[in-house]
Each structure stands twice: as structure tokens, then as C-alpha cells.
Write a structure and sequence with these properties.
Blueprint: H1 17-24, E1 35-41, E2 44-50, E3 54-58, H2 62-83, E4 94-99, H3 102-113, E5 120-123, E6 132-136, H4 142-158, H5 164-173, E7 177-180, E8 185-188, H6 195-201, H7 208-212, H8 214-217, H9 223-236, H10 241-251, H11 260-274, H12 277-290, H13 294-306, H14 310-323, H15 328-340, H16 344-356, H17 361-374, H18 378-391, H19 393-407
Parallel strand pairs: 3-4, 4-6
Antiparallel strand pairs: 1-2, 2-3, 5-6, 7-8
Length: about 400
């Protein structure tokens, strides 16, 4: 099958920073070199794998330990493309303990925190050798919590007390960086779960200065969603490279020797040297109001398509693809637009992609049949239309037969 046609962004569509990094350069395909050992443990045999940046101890076998190691190495690379910390300064590889038994996981975490945590938790101590990320391997909450806690482990390995808005905002931003265990690759779908909340706050939300200095003044209401929104703004602020540059330069001011409040003040002081905070607040509000959720993009695309505004419809549906690249809906509509533009080859690629991602089988085969018939590919059209009829005769027998009679 042909590849999906290259997607062209229009000005209204924001490219999430992580997705842009994937397009800019592929992630490496193998983990850093590692060593593997088996150790006696309380519950039997424990596997230990080490790489340049990680030390994983697991009770789930060698393959599972190596898979977790690969995931963490890939995450480390994505994080460090942005933060650019000197990995050579790490005193020890980051320790990760994978525990598959829930009772054993609860016991281990409770002994250290006083209560358990679902899925995963990072334990931070003053002594670097005691720090570790604990994962309840195979639990229902693992895929939700590992992205969050893995980022916090990464950040605090270099800066013990980072500004809280930075720690929480980036952790939420990277929550949608998921690991596909079968493919052993990272996949990203932008996390916009807080977008409506932040939009609805409007002028009633906490000021940017209050968020920046939460470690000194206390965390305001809605701190986490606004921290995420602030990070998203810095990374994707409508192509304004000054904000992105200011953010990345502020990372160089973070110190492992400073408190969270001191680091927060250093970042704000650096920002104020180049940025008017009132103007930034205006730009931030404009950015947030310009962002649309996946559902909003699809709805806007449908409305534009209905009035034959195919240029804007394409822009909206492409934005939806970048937010959820494995959802069938935008591909289906991009197929319809390609069909209307007499681009029958690309229409077929989009339709088949929608089908692969779970779209209605009868609907997509009917669309493929109409597309093939219009492109004078009679044999393909017959196959598609007959499949549509066989899948859902009530909806498609009459419509498909009208075309099949002509084709036969």
C-alpha cells in the first residue's frame, strides 16, 4: 500500500514540539549497550540489566527487563533533545525497580512512603544512589503513570529541586508519549485533556507570575492545568521562537545546588530580561484560545467540508491527525476531500488508512468502491462494493447495486 500523502500544515495548525522532533530526526533503533545478570530475590529470580543511563531490576524476566530498559532509554533521548543536560555528570545510572506482584509493590512503596501509589512512583532522596523509579509492571495504571514519573526521575536526576511549574507542566505534557511494547517504539498523541479547563478559566485563572513563583508564594488553584498550558505555550507558541529560546536558555540557569524557589526565581528573572510579562500574558491567552481539541478540529473540518471549503477543511483534519494519528475520522474526511479534488490515488490511501484504524468497514468499502469506479478501476470497485453490501446489506445494497449494474 502507498504511504499516507505528506501532510502540509497551514498557519492555523500548531505542530506539537514532540511530534516535530520525531519528524526532524528518527529515534535510535537499539538501546544503549547493556549488561544483564540474574540475582536471587525474595520472590525468586530477579533480572538486572544496565545501560549507560539506566539500571533496571526486574522480577519479570530478561525480555521484559530489556523492553523496559529500551522504553526508558528512548524517553531519556526525547527529554534530552529539549533540556540538553550533560548526561556525563550523572553520578550513577538511573535506578528502576520493576515489580509485577501488586502486593509486593504495595509493600515496597508503603515501607518508603507510608502509603502506596498506583502504577509507578519516583522516590527521590538526597543521596543519588538511593533514588529509584518503582514500576508496578503489568498494572492497569502503569501506562498512565510511567510517562509522568519517568520524566520526573529524569529532571530531578540533574536538578534535585526544579521549579514546580516546570516539573509538573512537562510531566503532564509528556504523559501522552506512550510506549508500544509490541513495536518497542514510542508513539505520541498530544495531551489536551486540560485544554477546556484552561480555556474556561480565561481571565479568572492565576497570573503567569503566580505560576512561575509557586514555590515561593504557594500553589494557586488550577496549578497543574495552567502549568501544562504554560509549557505548551513555550514549546508551540504559534512559531514565536523567542519564547522557545527563552525557555531553553532558562534550563542553563537551573542548579542542582538551589532550592525550587531559587530556581524558579532564576528562570523568571531570565525571562523578564527579554520579555514583557504583560505582553506574554496576552500572547499566552491568544495561544490557548487558538488551540482546539481533537473533537473541535474534526467538527470544524466537517463544517468547512459541508460548505466545500476544502482548504480550511484540510487544515483542520490535518491538525486532528497530528493530535491523534491513529484515529480513523480525519483520514476518512481527508479521503473525501481528495475524492472531491479528483485525487483518486490519495483518496484510496486515506480511506484504507481509516479502515486500518477501525473505521466502519461497510462505509469505507463503499467509499473505496465509489472512488475506484470514478477512477475507472472497475474490478477494484466491484470488490469493494460487494464487500460493503455483504457487511451491511441494509445500508448499502440499494446504493451499491446502482453502481454495480453499470460496472458489470
Amino acid at each position: 500500500m502507498k504511504k499516507i500523502p505528506a501532510l502540509v500544515f497551514f498557519a492555523a495548525v500548531v505542530v506539537p514540539w514532540v511530534f516535530a522532533q520525531y519528524n526532524a530526526a528518527p529515534l535510535y533503533q537499539t538501546p544503549q549497550p547493556y549488561t544483564s545478570n540474574t540475582l536471587p530475590g525474595n520472590a525468586g529470580i530477579t533480572v538486572e540489566v544496565r545501560s549507560l543511563y539506566f539500571h533496571v531490576v526486574s522480577d519479570s524476566g530478561s525480555y521484559d527487563a530489556e523492553t523496559l530498559l529500551r522504553e526508558l532509554e528512548l524517553r531519556f533521548e526525547v527529554y534530552n533533545r529539549l533540556f540538553r543536560f550533560n548526561a556525563a555528570t550523572l553520578p550513577n545510572p538511573l535506578k528502576v525497580r520493576s515489580i509485577s506482584n501488586r502486593a509486593e509493590y504495595d509493600r515496597y512503596v508503603t515501607e518508603r512512603l507510608g502509603s502506596t501509589r498506583d502504577g509507578a512512583v519516583y522516590l527521590h532522596y538526597q543521596q543519588a544512589e538511593r533514588r529509584e523509579l518503582i514500576v508496578n509492571r503489568g498494572s492497569a495504571d502503569e501506562s498512565r503513570m510511567v510517562p509522568h514519573q519517568a520524566f520526573i526521575q529524569y529532571l530531578r536526576a540533574f536538578v534535585s529541586q526544579p521549579p514546580t511549574w516546570m516539573r509538573e507542566g512537562f510531566a503532564i505534557y509528556f504523559n501522552s508519549l506512550k510506549f508500544d511494547k509490541a513495536a518497542r517504539e514510542l508513539r505520541y498523541e498530544e495531551n489536551l485533556s486540560w485544554l477546556e479547563t484552561v480555556k474556561n478559566l480565561g481571565a479568572n485563572g492565576p497570573s503567569l507570575e503566580t505560576v512561575f513563583l509557586a514555590d515561593l508564594r504557594g500553589q494557586p488553584e488550577y496549578f497543574q492545568p495552567v502549568s501544562w498550558a504554560l509549557v505548551s505555550f513555550f514549546l508551540n507558541a504559534g512559531g514565536n521562537n523567542e519564547y522557545f529560546r527563552t525557555l531553553t536558555e532558562s534550563f542553563m540557569l537551573l542548579s542542582d545546588q538551589k532550592s525550587a524557589g531559587e530556581n524558579a526565581q532564576s528562570v523568571l528573572d531570565r525571562l523578564l530580561r527579554w520579555t514583557n510579562l504583560d505582553q506574554m500574558a496576552v500572547d499566552y491567552a491568544n495561544y490557548i484560545n487558538s488551540r482546539r481539541t481533537f473533537a473541535e478540529l474534526v467538527d470544524a473540518g466537517q463544517q468547512a467540508y459541508a460548505v466545500k471549503d476544502y482548504v480550511n477543511a484540510t487544515s483542520y483534519f490535518q491538525g486532528a491527525v497530528y493530535q491523534k494519528p491513529t484515529h480513523y475520522a480525519p483520514y476518512y474526511y481527508l479521503g473525501l476531500i481528495s475524492y472531491e479534488n479528483h485525487d483518486f490515488d490519495n483518496a484510496e490511501v486515506y480511506y484504507r488508512t481509516a479502515l486500518n484504524y477501525g473505521a466502519d468497514v461497510a462505509l469505507l468499502n463503499y467509499a473505496l468502491g465509489v472512488n475506484a469506479a470514478t477512477a475507472n478501476r472497475a474490478a477494484d470497485a466491484v470488490n469493494y462494493l460487494e464487500t460493503a453490501v455483504a457487511t451491511d446489506p441494509t445500508r448499502y445494497r440499494e446504493k451499491a447495486e446502482a453502481i454495480l449494474v453499470r460496472l458489470r
